[in-house]
Design brief:
Elements: E1 6-10, E2 15-26, E3 29-37, E4 50-60, E5 70-83, H1 95-100, E6 112-115, H2 116-126, H3 136-139, H4 142-152, E7 159-168, E8 173-175, E9 181-183, H5 187-202, E10 206-210
Parallel strand pairs: 1-10
Antiparallel strand pairs: 2-3, 3-6, 4-5, 4-7, 8-9
Length: 214
């Protein structure tokens, strides 16, 4: 038989992606600047525990050989509730505002990382220098950089740049009285890609997996 069979899927999903300059402090709270990626159902991101995942550029060097340091791309995934995008309390909105629920994507989707009071207390006890000379600290909160560095097993000063996205920290589960429904984020992308790979293993002569919401 002649011909070509192709299955096309995509691996990416709409999400909140870390801005190049994400350091925000507002009303005594440390927030993380995010930009939307793709066409998401953004109201579903409110009041959820959110972790982070993505790529980190790290400077690696042998002890005493900083002049020979090289840049390495590392993957990171922290499925812990590090941040949350809180909803406004019900008594601070009118009934019309609650019914409309049209969040400003530039202002209302910036998650809270921690309070300034607690951050200053922990930074002081740990001897953290908030005004480090490293350029990365002028763009991102030191607390976030420290948590990412801990996961990677490196120093925060070794982080050169970040490409991180928020993720639901709540694990996927089976739902319904007969556990017949799958409750999970990114299920359309994951299932279609899984099915395509299975097809490739069995019959298909070519597979295309895109990483683009456009």
């Amino acid at each position: 038989d002649s011909g070509l069979v192709i299955i096309g899927t995509h691996t990416d999903s709409p999400c909140l992606r870390l801005r190049p300059n994400s350091k925000i402090t507002t009303s005594g709270m440390l927030q993380v600047g995010m930009q939307t990626y793709g066409g998401g159902l953004w109201h579903t991101w409110f009041d959820r525990p959110l972790g982070v995942a993505g790529k980190v550029i790290v400077r690696e060097a042998s002890p005493g050989q900083l002049e020979n340091a090289r840049l390495v791309e590392r993957l990171v995934r922290i499925p812990e509730p590090l941040m949350i995008v809180p909803n406004l309390a019900i008594h601070m909105q009118s009934s019309e505002e609650r019914m409309a629920f049209a969040p400003n994507l530039e202002l209302n989707l910036q998650p809270v990382l921690c309070s300034s009071i607690i951050n200053d207390e922990i930074a002081g006890s740990a001897g953290r220098v908030e005004d480090s000379k490293e350029e990365i600290f002028s763009r991102h909160h030191a607390a976030l950089l420290e948590r990412v560095a801990k996961e990677l097993g490196c120093s925060p000063n070794d982080i050169v740049d970040l490409d991180l996205c928020l993720m639901d920290a709540q694990p996927a589960c089976l739902a319904g009285i007969y556990r017949e429904f799958v409750s999970a984020p990114r299920i359309d992308n994951n299932l279609s890609t899984w099915a395509a790979v299975q097809g490739l293993c069995e019959y298909v002569s070519e597979i295309v997996i895109d990483d683009s919401q456009d």
